[in-house]
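Ops channel
N.P.: pipeline sanity check, posting one input/output pair.
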């Protein structure tokens, strides 16, 4: 068995091409399922008798580099350690998505299977030939047929504000107010497509390359902490097992829940927030700077920095939070410096775009779903590329 182990390692070094560095890894004599480190769902299968680099070894499993972060294989009697000299991975990276169950190979001749991934998984592409993409996988390069991958559009982060029925909306017929029936249609559509929500912790991990997420993932956010999110969004999201984040203006947080009154703006109390935590997380939207200071210049940008910092620290004192949404989408470099200083890990803009691996965590884009967005326009956000 020892002779087999080293002959396999030597074979691995030959097909990997030019040698640059020795790396500790693993070889299994039988096919092994690969599981996602966070969700523990099976995301692929590695073929027997091929080398794959290990990130670290735990008592019951071995952590490996896969997709955009890590996964693991369970320890079995069929797994043995090995060393191999590996082809270096270059720094040019694109993220691509599997469109179906996809086989990765040891060479671009597609003769020796290496790994099989399920559909809708993200991989870092570091090069290409005429017929194949070169993919970063298990610390080395694997090859996949071009027709089996498509360019990753990114992660959609949706933004809603106020939900009110047209029949009860006497005072807030603006573009930020969406009819709850429209919101239901939106959520039913993405649910039927097989999408699931991720938390902001998941998103932060994905951007930083520490967590894998399926290509059928989206994040759902609400700004301002309005009670209509409890009245209309919460029951639906609970039924769909969707998660969401509400960004709270803490100076508007009442001391106790209020009877629902659609004729005026109402805000969630701390008690209501606690009651909704099976669906919602609650993050920062300033204490009292969700207002314009000079003309159309928001207070977060136009007020003196000491006042900005004091306001944000007050918001943190009401309840601890890691993430932040810029009021009106306005910010500058000084705003970001303050957020970093007080320990905010990630901040969201209103720039319409999808989130990509490696994005600036203090300039995260979101897609504002307003009243003027038609259903075909909403569908296009998720339709196949």
């Amino acid at each position: 068995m020892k002779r087999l182990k080293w002959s396999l390692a030597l074979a691995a070094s030959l097909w990997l091409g030019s040698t640059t560095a020795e790396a500790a890894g693993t070889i299994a004599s039988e096919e092994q399922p690969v599981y996602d480190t966070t969700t523990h769902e099976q995301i692929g299968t590695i073929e027997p008798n091929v080398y794959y680099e290990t990130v670290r070894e735990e008592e019951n499993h071995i952590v490996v580099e896969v997709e955009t972060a890590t996964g693991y294989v369970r320890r079995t009697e069929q797994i043995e350690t090995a060393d191999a000299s590996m082809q270096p991975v270059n720094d040019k990276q694109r993220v691509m998505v599997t469109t179906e169950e996809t086989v990765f190979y040891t060479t671009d001749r597609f003769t020796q299977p290496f790994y099989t991934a399920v559909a809708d998984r993200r991989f870092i592409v570091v090069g290409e030939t005429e017929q194949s993409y070169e993919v970063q996988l298990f610390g080395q390069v694997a090859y996949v047929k071009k027709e089996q991958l498509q360019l990753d559009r990114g992660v959609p982060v949706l933004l809603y504000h106020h939900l009110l029925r047209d029949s009860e909306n006497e005072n807030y017929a603006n573009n930020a107010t969406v009819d709850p029936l429209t919101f239901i249609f939106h959520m039913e559509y993405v649910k039927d497509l097989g999408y699931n929500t991720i938390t902001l912790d998941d998103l932060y991990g994905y951007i930083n390359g520490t967590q894998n997420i399926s290509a059928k993932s989206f994040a759902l956010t609400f700004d301002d902490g309005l009670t209509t999110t409890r009245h209309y969004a919460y029951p639906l999201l609970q039924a769909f097992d969707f998660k969401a984040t509400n960004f709270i203006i803490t100076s508007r947080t009442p001391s106790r829940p209020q009877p629902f009154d659609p004729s005026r703006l109402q805000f969630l109390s701390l008690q209501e927030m606690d009651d909704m935590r099976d669906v919602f997380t609650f993050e920062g939207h300033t204490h009292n700077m969700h207002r314009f200071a000079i003309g159309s210049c928001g207070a977060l940008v136009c007020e003196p920095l000491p006042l900005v910092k004091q306001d944000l620290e007050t918001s943190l004192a009401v309840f601890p939070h890691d993430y932040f949404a810029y009021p009106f989408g306005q910010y500058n470099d000084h705003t970001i410096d303050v957020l970093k200083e007080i320990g905010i890990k990630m901040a969201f803009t209103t720039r319409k775009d999808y989130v990509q691996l490696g994005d600036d965590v203090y300039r995260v884009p979101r897609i504002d779903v307003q009243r003027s967005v038609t259903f075909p326009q909403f569908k296009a956000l998720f339709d196949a590329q």
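N.P.: looks fine end to end. The chain has nine helices and 26 strands.
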